[in-house]
Amino acid sequence: MADTFADVELRRLQPEHLAEWLLIEKATFPDPWSEPQLAGFLEKTRYQCFGLFQLNRLLAFCVFTTVLDEAELLQIAVTPAEQGRRLANQLFLLAAEKLEAENIHRILLEVRVSNTPAVQLYKRLGFSEDGVRKGYYPTTAGREDALLMSFSF
Ligand SMILES: CC(C)(COP(=O)(O)OP(=O)(O)OC[C@H]1O[C@@H](n2cnc3c(N)ncnc32)[C@H](O)[C@@H]1OP(=O)(O)O)[C@@H](O)C(=O)NCCC(=O)NCCS
């Protein structure tokens, strides 16, 4: 499987991308953020929102919140038809380059232990497992643990 795609590019998300972003958001998360929430991320400087585009089509996005030299990865998602092609890997590495250029030295995240594609992605990227937050996420069957992971530059 190819690990990089030459015909895709990273861009910062803008208000004109909201409709496409919302479509991916709704298709990939059971409890998606609303359009006003997405618009709010674009307005506040502590959030950094990136999209991976092929021509002018948004294929994937990620959202970070930053404090001093740390960032937290809040969401990363790939449009369903393009999942399984390592696009999230490429998106994360390109976005991390931008964050590093802004003096971010560590990225943290929380992920559901059952989210195998995401956990695999983060492990392949070199995230380390820092701990478990018991019963952090609600599920239809009760509660689910969060895996705490971090990535240092
Ligand atoms: C998590 C996500 C961003 C990964 O993006 P991607 O570009 O499809 O990632 P990859 O192609 O690198 O696949 C990730 C890994 O999951 C595996 N995988 C893909 N689909 C899978 C599935 N349905 N079940 C189990 N594993 C799967 C891949 O084989 C790969 O593992 P590998 O590195 O061992 O080969 C994408 O699956 C997604 O958008 N999920 C919905 C949103 C989400 O849960 N985001 C993460 C939390 S914010």
Describe what you observe in this structure:
Helices cover 29% and strands 41% of the residues. The longest helix has 15 residues, at 87-101. It has helices at 18-28, 35-43, 87-101, 116-125; strands at 8-12, 47-54, 57-67, 70-78, 106-112, 128-139, 142-152. A 7-stranded mixed beta sheet has the order 1-2-3-4-5-7-6, sandwiched between helices. It is α+β, with helices and mostly antiparallel strands. Helix 3 (87-101) packs across helix 4 (116-125). It starts with 7 loop residues before the first strand and ends with a strand. It has a single domain (8-152), classed as Gcn5-related N-acetyltransferase (GNAT) (Aminopeptidase), CATH 3.40.630.30. It is built from 4 helices and 7 strands. A hairpin with a 2-residue loop joins strand 2 and strand 3 (57-67). The structure holds coenzyme A. The site of coenzyme A has 21 residues, from strand 4, helix 3 and helix 4. Coenzyme A is lined by residues 28-29, 75-78, 83-89, 111, 115-118, 120-121, 124.
